[in-house]
Amino acid sequence: MSVPNTHFGAMQINELVKRAPRKSIFFVGIGGINMSSLAHISHIRGMKVGGSDRTPSTLTRRLEGEGIDVFYAHDASNIEGYDMLVYTVAIAEDNPEYVAARQRGIPCISRSDYMGYLMTGYERRIGISGMHGKSTCTSMCAEALMLSGVDPTVLSGAQLPSMGGAYRVGREEYFLFEACEYMDSFLDFNPTVSVILNIEMDHVDYFESMEHIKRSFLEFARLSGEDGVCVANIDSKNVKDALAEYKGLTVWFGLSDKADFRAVNIEQEQGAYSFDIVAYGEPFCSVKLRVGGYHNIYNALACAAALAVSGISASNIKRGLEVFFGAERRMEYKGMLNGARVFDDYGHHPTEVRATLAGARDMVSGEGRLFCVFQSHTYSRTAALLGDFSSALDIADRVVITDIYAARETDTMGITPELFAECIGEKATACHGFHKAAEVLRKELAQGDVAIVMGAGDVWHTFEYLDLEK
Contact 274/288 with Cβ under 8 angstroms? Predict the structure, then answer.
């Protein structure tokens, strides 16, 4: 079972930091993209920082290079000398560092609660929420903010080449961040602009119903306060339903003629879209995206609306959107195999899968085929959304289903790759081991094909068995 979020709030955490005699903080799971950024910010603010994770990575080595102690095993002795402990809700209740901290009376703070505290030192706080698209939209916003010269602080869920990682620390005016809905983590944040990209059924191990999800997103919108703004997708019925009782200022984006920020004159070339953005009925800017997929029109509109209400000019928003060529593992081009283009993608919800594959379909040339190596994320999500997943994956001509990524769960539902593949049909094959999935690609890919290795777990290991040409 996961450990729940704390909900101390920024004021109480500030008092804990003030009272901490050694000003030291330990991060359980410090190698995570978001946790490593929080550790870095804490370190440059003068705190002693340490943490633990299971294996070395680029992120942990970067932290070690900054003088942060990283332990590559979870052990109670690791927390000696630390005043506070920050954890992710993905850890187990019997994690030895978490258990030891509680026994010793060391304050334990959930990741989102601590992040909510850190962001209060910034004037403009832009939070990107939604079941999918968060990392891409955050990265688009980051590009535009950096080009605007405002030197933002950014906490993203994906690494962005222009930032040199998944986070950057700038001046204390703009704080851009992803707002994750799992276990209501985003309700500990303090945005001045709350962005809602979409709302769908997900995280069924926590959310009991769609109504439960809608209530959570309504509360997230309300966090922006009386002087804040909610930027929301007018084309999503679930978003509109969730905000039916919202009394604050809403800026709507979408394709509807009722949207405040809308896209018109949409054109497509090899999967990438160009369009004009109209704001409140007036021309705003023209955009030619470098990333494929119809769904990225919505990400771009959300970016434009959120930054416009935050004081960024249309010209800088246009520049940011047009230089953006994708975040890591978001339709990231990896190379060629047998004349086929191969991509890596983080998609792990049926809507994400469908949108990504639909966009990739436009990239297939001639008589080429669309391949997808897919690793589903958690048994509960797979079981609850199996029909939707199967329908989405049916867009591909050939599907390879790998072992399901368990994350925080154990299989009590009998969900297997074979069952998943059977639901899709003859075009699907179940493979145990990424070397087997790679073998299918090596044998079957041909000139003009497009292949996507997709999933939020560790399916990227498939590339270790592929000799791709750049």
Answer: yes
